[in-house]
């Protein structure tokens, strides 16, 4: 790497002569080693999934959740340094809570992402801190119905306050990804971590921008994509963790929750079946080429 | 001469995205004497090997009660562990005072995790040089958590940290199923057995160098308070260990006879 | 030339009084709420076999003015507890938001909200006591209903001073005078909780609400009832006091225009 030995990469917040902040780039390296995480924005909700590599047999199965809830309606999954991810989530919760203190209602996903983007960016500005070693995917559902203000006690006269646009659409799914630089974009499908290239390729096939994918199909796709992304590190066992947020009349009532176990297992079975199907196709078409690859292994 | 420039502080990433100061702090944990933790369906047990600086000095404390439903075992810098354990005691007491509820174990663990993480992201601080095993019970049952200087915390079925702890981990991995299905007393024996695996040839477990902590669920969802076994209290436990080892040996002897 | 400041323009003490030097201080005494503004009246609560019932009317008064008639004073916490508020409505909203933020926090972890009614009561009494000790009380008297650590029905009160009180049936405000005697007659001390059915408890509270509507000038004939049992919380809102009869009013002597 050209950066090494120039001295411009030893401190955060320092530009190199060609305008780069190497410490941020190194932080990205930490992300690229983490388990794959994906988020899919569906028409009636958002699904988050993460590949948890099982580093030891002694770990308690099913514990050690990696997707965190912020407020009630937002989930965050990150790839990279796990303790940094926890710090990030802790800040997100503080932001959501302070938003409630001011506005007496849940924070919109876009506003939370904006605030967290600023927070992460601040950690690239000073030599006294290091950037976050995580890329975080933020998924949530902004209520499509008009919510009561926190602490509201009644409804008052039915006349209403007026000034409302009839039939205006509000709320909906939100999906954002924040990088160690503080840069963030909104996504239809987001992927980060070790298997992000394979995952992105799969996400692009889904034509998510058309807005036709249902949440239930999204859950299955997310599981499949994590399995596909895991192909490159097949020798390691992993656990799949998935959460989702639906519309108010959907399965989670606008809350961020773990995908129920039956559905998760069903999605995993489908994912495994899809992978095996692919393998068979490959075997049939490639034939000898596959055999020679196996020899190399 | 080659010198690693990326390991001077905890706020510098190496080009590979590593933080060497944190990794060095993990080494401090390996310098400490070994502690073992394990869980079954009702109890969590901590077992530790105590070291004394010299023949006539006292032994270093390895297991600390945090509250009646929780205790920790430490490996590494004991003074750092004291900072963390004092914090845990305060938080635990705070929960009892404000809500009249014992603090759920996963909460306090993530709180110390967050504290440790802060030390790895801000200049002028250093990572904690201690690893912890946190044992406790709450509404969700018995728990065992591992805490590392990086701020990483993980819930485990069984765990060992400190010098020569690999031997204990191997034992635990081999006996995971037995441990899961064990009774309270068997769980303690598995803990002692795992600890014994780490000892060098000339050493053995004595009432002076061993420490055992037990916490769990008693009948009807009540909590069996954290109890520390040290000194003479250990005699029955070490005896039980000896008996179980003798039992294993006779079993082996019997099977050998059958074979011949 | 004299050196008296008055001669140089200082207001004379004998004309204007001595200068009040307290105006020079940047930190003066701080005004706190010394009386409630918009208030709710009685909250009632009764324990029965397997749960607790709470009732409160829907009125918020501004002094003697019936200002808001659609105010829900029974507030749900989680899936197992309800808090009933009398006293200042805005302070109730503040406390309700405190409880909401706790509920959000409690649900971060996978094992969910484990705070029961007893925990909430402990917490709220600490909040109320802290605020009264700052001479800035939260002007409420609350009832907390739900279950305790042993899953037994729980009903307890806390007031603006932080005083706590517990009994099988409770009433705040005017109800303490009017409803408690009725409840004591219906559910005497020697009658065990197991003999009180849910329907009896609900009927008793409906009767009390009616009496309060007759005799408490700050009450309303629209009310809410919450039944907390092992099955969950059952809210009945927008209830109406049925079968009203004001015939008794004619027999009241000593008020108004009657002569004898």
From TrEMBL, chain A:
Statement: the UniProt record of this protein carries the keyword Protein biosynthesis: no
Q: Where's it mainly located?
A: cytoplasm
Task: Give the GO terms filed under biological process for this record.
Answer: ubiquitin-dependent protein catabolic process
Ranges for region Disordered: 268-297
Proteasome alpha-type subunits domain: residues covered? 8-30
Please provide the record's keywords in A-Z order: Cytoplasm, Nucleus, Proteasome
GO annotation, cellular component aspect: cytoplasm; nucleus; proteasome core complex, alpha-subunit complex
Renumbered to this chain, the Basic and acidic residues biased-composition regions fall at 284-297
Q: Where in or outside the cell is it found? A: Cytoplasm; Nucleus
Question: Does the record's keyword annotation contain Aminoacyl-tRNA synthetase?
Answer: no
Could you say which protein family the record assigns here?
Belongs to the peptidase T1A family.
Subunit note? The 26S proteasome consists of a 20S proteasome core and two 19S regulatory subunits.
List the protein's name.
Answer: Proteasome subunit alpha type
Question: Species lineage, top-down?
Answer: Eukaryota, Fungi, Dikarya, Ascomycota, Pezizomycotina
UniProtKB/TrEMBL annotation, chain B:
**What biological processes does GO assign it?**
ubiquitin-dependent protein catabolic process
Subcellular location(s) per record? Cytoplasm; Nucleus
**UniProt KW Transcription keyword:** no
**Cross-referenced PROSITE patterns:** PROTEASOME_ALPHA_1, PROTEASOME_ALPHA_2
The record, for SUPFAM superfamilies, names: N-terminal nucleophile aminohydrolases (Ntn hydrolases)
Give the Gene Ontology MF terms in alphabetical order. hydrolase activity
Q: Which Gene Ontology cellular component annotation is one that this UniProt entry carries?
A: nucleus
Record keywords: Cytoplasm, Hydrolase, Nucleus, Proteasome
All residue ranges annotated as the Proteasome alpha-type subunits domain in the record: 6-28
Subcellular location, principal: cytoplasm
Presence of keyword Lipoprotein = no
Its subunit composition reads: The 26S proteasome consists of a 20S proteasome core and two 19S regulatory subunits.
PANTHER family xref list: PROTEASOME SUBUNIT ALPHA/BETA
Name the family. Answer: Belongs to the peptidase T1A family.
Q: What is this protein called?
A: Proteasome subunit alpha type
Q: Which organism is it from?
A: Aspergillus saccharolyticus JOP 1030-1
TrEMBL record, chain C:
Top-level lineage group: Eukaryota
Q: Name one GO biological process term.
A: proteolysis involved in protein catabolic process
An annotated GO cellular component: proteasome core complex, beta-subunit complex
**Matching PROSITE patterns:** PROTEASOME_BETA_1 (PS00854), PROTEASOME_BETA_2 (PS51476)
Sorted alphabetically, which keywords does the UniProt record give? Cytoplasm, Nucleus, Proteasome
Q: Which residues form a coiled coil?
A: none
From the Swiss-Prot or TrEMBL record, state where the protein is found: Cytoplasm; Nucleus
Please give the chief subcellular localization of this protein: cytoplasm
Q: Which InterPro entries match?
A: Ntn_hydrolases_N, Proteasome_beta4, Proteasome_bsu_CS, Proteasome_sua/b, Proteasome_suB-type
Please give the function described in this protein's UniProt entry: Non-catalytic component of the proteasome.
Record-given protein name: Proteasome subunit beta
Q: State the organism named in the record.
A: Aspergillus saccharolyticus JOP 1030-1
